[in-house]
Every structure is written in structure tokens, then in C-alpha cells.
Amino acid sequence: MIFIGKAASGSPNPLGNFPFLNHQKYIAGVETCDQLILNIMKIVICGSMAFSQKMVEIANNLKQAGHKAILPRNTENYAIKSLREEIGSESTENKIKYDLIREYYNEIKNSDAVLIVNENKNNIPNYIGGNSFLEMGFAHVLNKKIFILNSLPEMIYTDEIKAMQPIILEGDLDKIKKPSYF
């Protein structure tokens, strides 16, 4: 039987006891039969808060396509510029106070993939900053898919990004596909 969901929660198998599912397998991050069969993914969106409006737009597009999209804490507030003292970046104080790095690691751990939103910043085309690079590393070590919205930037860690073998979307969210489990 296939168990889908979070094993630690002890939740029952939402698929029931279908005879054709005669394998014992737990698929991390998959919570419903629809996620497994309909190519639905839980995708954690990563990027500089300077890209918050684009990140919210992408999350909405992914949700319309049937995916579950996870945004960093306060992204919507950054997008509407209600966090005036921190527009464009999260403060170090908030990262420490709310343990944001560890919080997002856990989101990545419980997802199917990360999507790195990389736009132009600081005169660098398709910028990928320190936090996004760190989150890509988390995803890589956890064997999650890594999608990058635009082409790779020329930065001192571009070789390391390439070594993680991300899927470059070239701006096309329709290229996001879930791997087949069967």
C-alpha cells in the first residue's frame, strides 16, 4: 500500500486500500492523491524581497495551475510596501528573531521543489543572492527539484549553482513538471 502524507502525523492514507497500489512507499511532501496523480507540486518560492511583487505574482500563477505555492514570511507586505523600513530586504534582526532561515529550511524539506525568482538587482542580470543560494543548497541536499525562473547570473558562485543542476525555466512556468513516482 502507498502511504501518502506526513508519516509523523499518523494521518491515514487518503487513497484508501486500492488493490492496484500494492507497494509500501512513503512519498515526502505529497499530501493527497491529487498531488500524486495530477502533477501538482508543493513549491517553495525563494528570492530577494526586492522581487516580492514578482514572487506574489508567480505564487498566484502557480496556484491557478493547481500547485501549492509557499512564499517567505511577509512577502505580501513587502510587495505592497507596508514594511517601509525594510523595503527590498529582510533585516538581520528579523531573520534571527523569527528564525527565518530554519523556518524556510523546514518548508523546503516538506516540499517537492524550490523556485528561485531571479531578476535584475544591483546591476546584476538575474541576480541570485545569498539567502536564495543557501535555499538552493538546502533543496539540493534534500533531493528536491530546483527551478530557476530566468537564466543564470554571472556571479562568483555560478559554478556551484550549475553543479546543483537546476531547471532553467526562461520565464515559462509551464515548464514546471513533477517527476513520476510510478
Topology:
Layout (H helix, E strand, L loop, with lengths): L1 E3 L20 E3 L5 H5 L4 E6 L4 H13 L3 E3 L4 H5 L12 H6 L2 H10 L3 E5 L12 H12 L3 E4 L9 H6 L3 E2 L14
Parallel strand pairs: 1-2, 3-4, 3-5, 5-6, 6-7
Helix pairs in contact: 5-6
Main sheet record: 5 strands, parallel
Distance between the termini: 13 Å
- How many β-strand runs? 7
Helical percentage: 25-40%
* Class by SSE composition: alpha/beta
Number of helices: 7
Which strands sit side by side, in order, in the main sheet? 4-3-5-6-7
Taken together, the total number of domains comes to: 2
Specify the CATH class of the largest domain.
Answer: Alpha Beta
Low-pLDDT sequence parts = 1-27
Rg estimate, integer Å: 17 Å
Shape: globular
Strand content: 5-15%
Mean pLDDT: 82
Mind telling me which CATH architecture of the largest domain this is? 3-Layer(aba) Sandwich
